């Protein structure tokens, strides 16, 4: 039976222990679970998450994106589905599961399933919750959603190293963590903390992506290192984790994401080429890591 999501969905009372069990059951259907994090806000974490997801979908993989950035959910807008209505299905035991809206970008990608707090709360309404409630909401967006079978589940976490990340990482067995940074010192300091958090959580594959690495001057074509040079790569080396690549600042990337179209769909841009390269490297590394783990 399909019904419309109740308008005043009571997040706090929407499932308790069985919820954790549902997450555990569902994750068996997801081949790779990848968290996208950043030590610092505003470095382009959501931009990287949606472009990685779209690049994977462009290659024919089935992808789900969970916007776990409950306080600033932008993913649905960036993927052009923010106006979609979320339906829910009632199960025999009485629990509801939301049906994630999908976008296949006019057939340019396989459909991407998207779930975000942004669907359930009006855009101008702030979410003023204590941490435990936020954690619960994120868990519901995992366990009370009909995700189905996926090649990749991408989770866009809130910035920083807060307790929500800790709890979700304890519930869900992540295959990889991608830490997004910009090249400047202040961002790198916080990025190191995020890398170490993922190491402590035992995530098998950890990698750094450097966003806003450089700007190609639209007038002279010269490369400008606006925020310094090579910081992300040096940090990855220092921490002993992989470096997946650099994404340049691209004015079109900002314009495109404001219009709900990930830049990776604009094949001729430097940012799109960078994202495709990153995704190819990521797939290879994930397969290698999985093989190594199965041999242990
Ligand atoms: N490579 C890029 N080139 C141009 N603009 C970019 C690039 N990466 C991100 N942006 C823009 O920067 C802004 C912030 O990006 P985004 O929302 O992805 O950051 P975030 O780290 O997820 O932020 P928050 O910490 O608020 O969650 C957006 O307007 C986005 O379009």
From TrEMBL:
It comes from Palaeococcus pacificus DY20341. ATP binds at residues 39-46. HAMAP family: Mrp_NBP35 (MF_02040). Homodimer. Belongs to the Mrp/NBP35 ATP-binding proteins family. InterPro entries: Mrp-like_CS (IPR000808), Mrp/NBP35_ATP-bd (IPR019591), NUBPL-like (IPR044304), P-loop_NTPase (IPR027417), YlxH/NBP35 (IPR033756). Keywords: ATP-binding, Hydrolase, Iron, Iron-sulfur, Metal-binding, Nucleotide-binding. Binds and transfers iron-sulfur (Fe-S) clusters to target apoproteins. Can hydrolyze ATP. GO terms for biological process: iron-sulfur cluster assembly. The keyword Translocase does not apply. Signal peptide: none annotated. GO terms for molecular function: 4 iron, 4 sulfur cluster binding; ATP binding; ATP hydrolysis activity; ATP-dependent FeS chaperone activity; metal ion binding. SUPFAM superfamilies: P-loop containing nucleoside triphosphate hydrolases. This is Iron-sulfur cluster carrier protein. PANTHER family: IRON-SULFUR PROTEIN NUBPL.
